[in-house]
UniProtKB/TrEMBL annotation:
Its main location: cytoplasm. Residues 43-66 are annotated as: NMPbind. Broad-specificity nucleoside monophosphate (NMP) kinase that catalyzes the reversible transfer of the terminal phosphate group between nucleoside triphosphates and monophosphates. Has also ATPase activity. Involved in the late cytoplasmic maturation steps of the 40S ribosomal particles, specifically 18S rRNA maturation. While NMP activity is not required for ribosome maturation, ATPase activity is. Associates transiently with small ribosomal subunit protein uS11. ATP hydrolysis breaks the interaction with uS11. This is Adenylate kinase isoenzyme 6 homolog.
Length: 178
């Protein structure tokens, strides 16, 4: 991003981060929003697998151990360009300058529990993610990592919620670009 006199030049098209506990609807929402706005959807979990941006497999949590530096290096040029919807359950390692809007999806614990068990989450992986949602860990992480005025928490319990979120964010993207 071009800097002049310490003021960041506004991108032509915004970058949005959609974050939240696994099971809150990040990928569903991001894909629908990308379709509605013609922004690029970047699913960080898929990117990590496709490009081997990890430090191996964690047997306890049944997931890759993401290499945050490799992910940021991979995304740098794309993010500077703008027009991206980044979908990931973490947010504190991304550079603050990358995002114009941060959306933290939140889901009722009983709904989240059902979604995660349907995905096959059990034991520590299941309880850890439910606790993460109860204690609003991702919302706090977002508020600690980015200016509070660009962070918004939105309820994502149903397909109607997703539709409402996509509509709201589509309006925001349109107003950003005008």
């Amino acid at each position: 991003m071009a800097q002049s006199g310490g003021v960041r030049k506004k991108r032509e098209r915004p970058n949005i981060l959609i974050t939240g506990t696994p099971g809150t609807g990040k990928t569903t929402t991001s894909a629908a929003l990308a379709e509605a706005t013609n922004l690029r959807h970047v699913n960080v979990g898929d990117l990590v697998k496709e490009k081997n941006l990890h430090d191996g497999w964690d047997d306890e949590f049944e997931c890759y151990v993401i290499n945050e530096d490799l992910v940021c290096d991979e995304l740098e040029d794309l993010m500077e360009e703008g027009g991206n919807i980044v979908d990931h359950h973490g947010c504190d390692f991304f550079p603050e300058r990358w995002f114009d809007h941060i959306v933290v999806l939140q889901t009722d614990n009983s709904v989240l529990y059902d979604r995660l068990t349907k995905r096959g989450y059990t034991g520590k992986k299941l309880s850890n993610n439910i606790e993460c949602e109860i204690f609003q860990v991702l919302l706090e992480e977002a508020k600690d990592s980015y200016p509070e005025d660009i962070v918004v928490a939105l309820r994502s319990d149903s397909i109607e919620d997703v539709d409402r979120i996509v509509s709201t964010l589509t309006d925001w993207v349109r107003s950003y670009s005008s």
